[in-house]
Amino acid sequence: MTRRITVKSIAFACVLSCVSACEQVSVSQDARAVPRDPQKTVASEGAAPRADVYGPPATLGVLSHKEVSESSGIVSSRTTPGLYWTHNDSGDGPFLYAFDSQGAHKGVWRVIGATARDWEGVAVGPGPERSTNYLYIGDIGDNRVARSEVRVYRVPEPVITPVDASSTKANPISTKEVEIIRLRYPDGSHDAEALLVHPINGNIYIVTKIPFGNPIIYQAQAPLNTAEATTMVRVGDISLSGFFGGLITGGDISPDGSRVALCDYGQAYELVLPHAGSSFNDIWKQPLTTIDLGERKQGEAIGYRLDGRALLATSEGKRSPLIQVVRR
Fold this sequence. Notes:
mainly beta; 6-stranded antiparallel beta sheet; 24 strands; globular
């Protein structure tokens, strides 16, 4: 945690010293090969963000459960529409917390068979059983950039009932036993906080967190091996030359698989597939739309509403605001 704060302090210092408020955003061509392709899709220098795509940020409520002090991931429930899942950053146990669209507490689940070294993201996607929705929990944080492999825990998503709101961290509900998906990068260790799962094919994507550098996108293709570690493939990279550089802290794929949302400490970004029938990995080559998320203390989580028409974001800190922006 100390190293995390140090990195973030550096980022905020850059904000104070920055002389230009212009956000210059670009997405590279497919970065599967090394060195990177020098050709890029570049936004015009000083161009205004497409603020008309989403409406202004609105605070729906606050995360009321006292144990949620470092919300580091958010995803909309598929088993119980209208509810959401979150988890704490490093320092908590293997717990998931459910809440509603105003932030009211709806239950605590202990994830059986999982440990919580540095949980940084949660997603929903398909898995081994076609009729089942699965939660994917990303133990992918690596502040020291020293882990030889990271873990993603996959578990059937629980159905959330009204009585579950009485559960607590001291007396949680148990999930089913997790499957452990061990992942390795093809080019050494990376810190990362953004875990994405494709809602249709189940591919896993991790977007790295690189101070003052270009975040890289790595893919683990489904079906995912739980018997041995999988080496991911590098499929793209993103150039963000704004206040927070490459400090991507959260992400999600829209329920229809056509859009990707990412966030840093200050704002959000969205990429959209160019047309129906495009290969999903073409999305990393598209220009980014900048999205205002309003005031967040330390934003590390973003997710699509179940209907795909809005984005929700949380922040670290107790009683985090639950922020929503609606797509016009």
